[in-house]
Amino acid sequence: MIKRFLGGEMKKAARFGLPMAGAMLFLGMATSPAQAASYSASCSTTGATGSAAISGWEWGQAGIPDVTLKVKDTLADGHHVRVRLYVVYADETYYFPWRENYDGNGATKTWDTYVSGPGNIFDAGVQVARYEGNDQLNYCTQRINL
């Protein structure tokens, strides 16, 4: 079993085995190895808008030291909204647990966190959703251009 951390929340996932990262071609890196860059993405769906911003990460690192997740409820409908980060390793995509905002229309919640994982991260993204209880009503997904 491998362990992944998002802001101190430990999650276990089955290990599928990570192939050597040297075989992967990483495109779109905008910084030199000596300087970590910042990246962000956002998306909106009916009743919710959210974003993820990452910084302090550079290619070849297994974790992301600084992650900020935000979600805003944009509709007075009695539903709550959620946001989560996902990361892509060489052989799997891992979705972290949802962060929830029950504060109602117009309310924004922000979480500062980090990612610690088992292998090199090749991609990441954000998902934003509107929920009724545990039933997902609608969602959006946006890739962070790393």
Q: Give the C-alpha Rg.
A: 16 Å
Which strand order does the major sheet show? 2-1-9-5-4-3
Helix content: under 10%
Summing up helix and strand content along with how strands pair, one would put the structural category as: mainly beta
Percentage of residues in DSSP E strands: over 45%
Oligomeric description of these chains: single chain
Q: Please describe the biggest sheet, giving its number of strands, its sense, and whether it closes into a barrel.
A: 6 strands, antiparallel
Elements, N to C (H/E): EEEEEEEEEEE
Distance between the termini: 27 Å
List unreliable stretches of 5+ residues: 8-34
Given the structure, what is the number of helices? Answer: 0
Which overall shape is indicated by the principal axes computed on the Cα atoms?
A: elongated
Strand element count: 11
The overall pLDDT average reads: 80
